[in-house]
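Re: Re: ligand-bound prediction request (bumping)

Still looking for help on this. To restate: I need the protein modeled with flavin mononucleotide bound, output as structure tokens. Inputs repeated here so nobody has to scroll up.
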Amino acid sequence: MDGSGKVLSQYLYISTAPTLPREEVDAILATSARNNPARGITGLLLFNGRNFLQLLEGEEGEVAVLMEKITADPRHSGVSVLDRRGIDVRTCPDWAMKRVMIAESIEARREMLERDLPEALDPEVRKMIVNFAVLN
Ligand SMILES: Cc1cc2nc3c(=O)[nH]c(=O)nc-3n(C[C@H](O)[C@H](O)[C@H](O)COP(=O)(O)O)c2cc1C
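Reply:
Sorry for the wait, this slipped through. Here it is.
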């Protein structure tokens, strides 16, 4: 639960966007920075040039409404929810939507993610994110 006593949910999904220009990713992050704070949404976004992975957390009703919008967004397709769980505490409390960069070299990726991913992530969720990020 958060400070207001509402139940918090966390969603992790992947999607496909093979021809999306990089500028569109910046536009998505700008929209997220504009909208998410007022809705109490926090999270992180990875883009590997072909696929997105996004972690969203917030009050269940808010996250569910945003997931519907995101699923209908024509900039990507094949939205597939990997994990959805109730959480007691936010794992990304300071991030309206943090872009997590994926290093060029595969060897550097794990190290970079270990540093950049939030400490409070459930180990199982962390593993799903790292596995996504080390894929080519
Ligand atoms: C991969 C991806 C992630 C997105 N993440 C968010 C988000 O965290 N917050 C958000 O408001 N919109 C996000 N969007 C954009 C929404 O689909 C939608 O375009 C936007 O919420 C509309 O905002 P507006 O009504 O202010 O234009 C995302 C879109 C994509 C493709």
